[in-house]
Write a structure and sequence with these properties.
A hairpin with a 2-residue loop joins β4 and β5. This protein has a four-stranded mixed beta sheet with strand order 10-11-15-14. Strands 1-9-8 form a three-stranded mixed beta sheet. Strands 2-7 form a two-stranded antiparallel sheet. α2 packs antiparallel against α3. The longest helix has 18 residues. It contains ten helices and 15 strands. With 381 residues, it is an alpha+beta fold. About 10% of the residues have low confidence. It is 27% helix and 25% strand. The protein has four domains: 100 residues, DnaJ domain (Helix Hairpins), CATH 1.10.287; 98 residues, Urease metallochaperone UreE, N-terminal domain (HSP40/DNAj peptide-binding domain), CATH 2.60.260.20; 73 residues, Urease metallochaperone UreE, N-terminal domain (HSP40/DNAj peptide-binding domain, Sandwich); 30 residues.
Length: 381
């Protein structure tokens, strides 16, 4: 014969525990073992039923006194006053207490008190806006056009034909919620007739057909601040989808995308460009001019002997800092270009230069070939 678990042990309480301690322990365990938190777990469902049965008994002073004196036999012999179990309802916990727990777990969709559903704000919307790097540098005013569910003007978003009104929902009695018993506990759901409003429209508006919203094209001005980058998000409060039946509108989020530039690349607040220079400029040094995004010409000094791949930097010539002060840097990647079209005279001059070379002019090349020579000698020894 199976031994039935002690109610106090099920609720993890001492037999001398007061009512507040028992209730607190039950709430904690019920939240832990509730089937909706443990879907498909048969053991969790069984634990939830047993602790609910235990609490239904111990929360009632008379039932608790009978249980303390006779144990489980008090109910097997009908000593609980004919309830068919500790709860008088087939062993389930009291609905008011379960309602408190459901509300803690799931929010106001469940709960013992009922009441109309709060107004649901309209949905937030997203708009992707592509701009040039120059626009990102200077900032701009952009006009966009979107189609959005806006408040119906004839009915002012109520959904009711002008001159008519609403009446209390017969199904939920104006509460916006209906109750249904599922197994051993009661569940509250949004009323399917009034959708939580607690009232229904007598005569739907002909313009919006009772929805309170109509699709409408909207033209909006968007301020693009200097320094924006791809992924920057601009929020226009209240410019999203209108809420149902006059509820507040959602927000519109503008996501910025920067078009590829023909000369510059963006790297945070820095601007990067590749500058090919003649090998004579690389050898002798010189100056190159780069047009900046601000319209100014930026002069860059090329030091003599600069190597291919070297980076030069002009401080404060990059992108503006978004919502801040200062600018990033202009970074120049140097590309030393070898000439491909030489005149006869130029070739003669280069041969003269080549004839005077000692190897010390290009220390990296000299060092590389010296290492090759040493490696070859080691192999042939």
């Amino acid at each position: 014969m199976a031994v039935e678990a002690d109610y106090y042990e099920l609720l993890e309480c001492e037999r001398t525990a007061d009512d507040a301690t028992i209730k607190s322990s039950y709430r904690r365990l019920a939240m832990r073992w509730h089937p909706d938190r443990n879907p498909g777990d048969a053991e969790a469902e069984h634990r939830f039923k047993t602790i609910s049965e235990a609490y239904e008994c111990l929360k009632d002073p008379q039932k608790r006194a009978a249980y303390d004196r006779f144990g489980h036999d008090a109910y097997k012999q009908g000593m609980n006053g004919g309830g068919g179990g500790p709860g008088g309802m087939g062993g389930g916990a009291g609905f008011s207490d379960l309602g408190d727990i459901f509300e803690t777990i799931f929010g106001s969709a469940f709960g013992g008190g009922g009441g109309r559903q709060q107004q649901r704000r309209g949905a937030d919307l997203r708009y992707d806006l592509e701009i040039s790097l120059d626009d990102a540098f200077h900032g701009k005013q952009a006009e966009i056009e979107i189609e959005v569910a806006a408040k119906c003007e004839p009915c002012d978003g109520s959904g009711a034909e002008p001159g008519t009104g609403t009446r209390r929902c017969n199904l939920c009695g104006g509460h916006g919620q209906v109750r249904a018993q599922q197994g051993f506990f009661m569940v509250e759901r949004t009323c399917p007739t009034c959708h939580g409003r607690g009232e229904v429209i007598e005569k739907p508006c002909r313009s919006c057909r009772g929805d309170g919203r109509v699709d409408s094209p909207q033209k909006l001005d968007v301020t693009i601040p200097p320094g924006v980058d791809t992924g920057t998000r601009i929020r226009l409060a209240g410019r999203g989808e209108a809420g149902p039946f006059g509820a507040p509108s959602g927000d519109l989020y503008i996501f910025i995308h920067i078009r590829r530039h023909s000369v510059f690349e963006r790297d945070g607040t820095n601007i990067v460009t590749r500058a090919p220079i003649a090998f004579t400029t690389a050898a002798l040094g010189g100056t190159i001019a780069i047009p900046g995004l601000d319209g100014k010409t930026i002069e860059v000094e090329i030091p003599a002997g600069i190597q291919n791949g070297k980076q030069l930097r002009k401080r404060g010539e990059g992108m503006p800092v978004l919502q801040g002060r200062g600018r990033g840097d202009l970074v120049i990647d140097i590309m030393v270009e070898t000439p491909t079209k030489l005149s006869a005279k130029q070739k003669d001059l280069l041969r003269e230069l080549q004839a005077t070379e000692t190897g010390d002019e290009c220390p990296q090349s000299k060092g590389f070939f010296n290492r090759l020579k040493e490696a070859w000698e080691d192999l042939t020894d």
